[in-house]
Design goal:
The mean pLDDT is 90. The two termini are 35 Å apart. It contains 8 helices and 21 strands. Strands 1, 2, 3, 4, 5 and 6 form a 6-stranded antiparallel beta sheet that branches. The chain has a 4-stranded antiparallel beta sheet with strand order 11-12-13-14, with no helix packed on it. A 4-stranded antiparallel beta sheet has the order 15-16-17-18. The chain is globular and about 65 Å long. The protein is of the alpha+beta class.
């Protein structure tokens, strides 16, 4: 599915962006009054969920708007929406835009980095996140973003590639594989690019193989199940409490107290997390047992650091949702 835009002259009637497969996000071009965001567009997802985003002058966007409840938006549809803003801004010759909203989060920073460039850092962008959220401050954050939209192509209902100057991402089942370090890596191997899950210092699974110009050669391939005998066991509370202190060092400082509380009340269980290192399973967090299988021989200190790095993004998302809900 490709993006669909319906115009009435220079006014956008409707836009629909793809989230992969049968998932999409639709923007109602009409502008409504919203109690928090002011002038706003209604967003509707393929699941029927409804939320709102700040109004945009679509023919010439001059800001990056806030979304009221970003958790309701499918991740790939959310980046596609930001990419649409970047594409429209570049077409109109807009040099830079600023985010105007109360939620300058790490997750938003990561999404913006896919379709804009900036000389600022994540810390510059997220520094006042708690204060802005508490005050519902929708003034522009003083970080300039230059439009640099990507091109995303679906090679398979579960596999997409993203290009800018070159291949930047291979997305398999909503997991993005990128060049460099980290557990989800793109590795150039001669004339092909392999999308791999790395655990420890070696690949655990190859999920897809593509050409440098984005042709699918193989995949999506299932990941192997871990064989560690810890599968199904919960981490003891003392270990979870110790891990909390490592996790808070990896998340935004304003979330520290909520992160500790989330880890105190949420069971963390070893299991098969597929192509992820940790998965939010609602009433528990599932840790990939291959972390233990691969890293236990290197000592508990190595295991603890790896677990904290795996848990941090999952627990941060949970903590962020709790913090925003508390703000009403």
């Amino acid at each position: 599915m490709t993006d669909e835009l319906d115009w009435d002259g220079t006014r956008l009637r409707r836009a629909r962006v793809s989230g992969g497969g049968d998932r999409w996000l639709e923007v109602d071009g009409a502008v409504h009054a919203h109690p928090l965001l002011g002038p706003a567009h209604r967003l509707t997802t393929s699941t029927g969920a409804v939320t709102w985003m700040g109004a945009v002058t679509w023919a010439r966007p001059d800001r990056i708007p806030a979304v009221e409840h970003p958790a309701l938006v499918p991740a790939l549809a959310g980046t596609a929406l930001l990419n649409l803003i970047a594409r429209q801004a570049r077409r109109a010759g807009v040099a830079t835009l600023r985010y105007a909203g109360p939620y300058p989060t790490a997750a938003l920073w990561s999404a913006l980095a896919q379709c804009f460039t900036t000389t600022a850092t994540e810390d510059d962008f997220t520094r006042d996140a708690e204060r802005r959220a508490a005050r519902v401050d929708a003034s522009p954050v003083a970080v300039d973003f230059t439009p640099a939209p990507f091109e995303r192509r679906w090679l398979h209902p579960r596999v997409a590639v993203q290009h800018r100057a070159a291949l930047e991402r291979v997305i398999v089942d909503d997991v993005a594989y990128v060049a460099g370090g980290g557990p989800h890596r793109l590795r150039v191997d001669g004339e092909v690019v392999r999308a791999e899950l790395w655990i420890g210092d070696a690949p655990w699974a190859e999920v897809a193989v593509v050409t440098p110009d984005g042709g699918l050669l193989s995949g999506p391939t299932p990941t192997p199940a871990p064989s560690a005998d810890v599968v199904g066991r919960a981490l003891p509370p003392a270990l979870t409490s110790a891990l909390a202190e490592l996790v808070v060092e990896l998340v935004a400082a304003p979330l520290a107290a909520v992160v500790r509380a989330e880890l105190a009340r949420t069971p963390v269980v070893w299991g098969d997390a597929g192509a992820r290192l940790a998965v939010d399973a609602g009433d528990r967090v599932l840790l990939h047992a291959a972390l233990w299988e691969r890293l236990a021989p290197h000592g508990l200190a190595r295991v603890a650091l790896a677990l904290a790095e795996a848990l941090a993004p999952v627990i941060a998302r949970r903590a962020q949702a709790v913090a925003l809900a508390a703000l009403g």
